[in-house]
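anyone seen this seq b4? input:
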Amino acid sequence: MNKQLALAIKLNDEATLADFNWGSNTLLEQQLNHMLTFKEERLLYLWGAQGSGKSHLLQASCQAVSVTQSAIYLPLHLLKEWGPQAIEGLEDQDLVCIDDIDAIAGDPFWEEALFHLYNKIKDMEQSLLIISGNQSPTTLPIKLPDLRSRLSWGLVIQLMELSDEDKINTLKLHALRRGFDLPESVGQFLLNRCSRNMHDLHQLLNRLDDASLAAQRKITIPFVKDILNI
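predicted toks r here
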């Protein structure tokens, strides 16, 4: 099953710690880098609004250590249908990143499986565990009391959303990596008229880039209106 997992789950090559726009999340940046480097703190629960960058950071953390250590990224919104057996035997990984714990909240079998994995990783004394959720551990709808309490045992840090200026700068940097300049006015238009979720905005920008290449047109506000029908 774990070999199948490794084949099924592909990390986003563009997700790196160096390329993440930390904005006001300076403390998180320091704590995460320190955790991955020195392993003094081995448990982290990261929470924040959907689309704030949690998945990026978990995948980036795996890529940051993968040169010298074993790491696995587990997006529970995809793995939920595989069943709890999908995460058996993963405690020997140097880094385990569990994304979207909200996806299995209320499922007694998944909650028990995560509870046991958490304990095994903690007992390994060398393994790191990062779990992400859309809510804090105290408000997460986890039914198993022992699992809910364990989510607060290590570091608990909220990922703050970027300001509009930081979001536009992130989109402009993403555009540069794809080989084009994104006008400030287009970035502001996307924020005003489309999803403000950074994941959705990145996907939207990729779509606009593909359309502009096909049409041999620059990405302007009229072009965006035409492509998105807004």
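The chain has a mean pLDDT of 93. Residues 164 and 191 are 8 Å apart (CA to CA). kinda curious what u guys think
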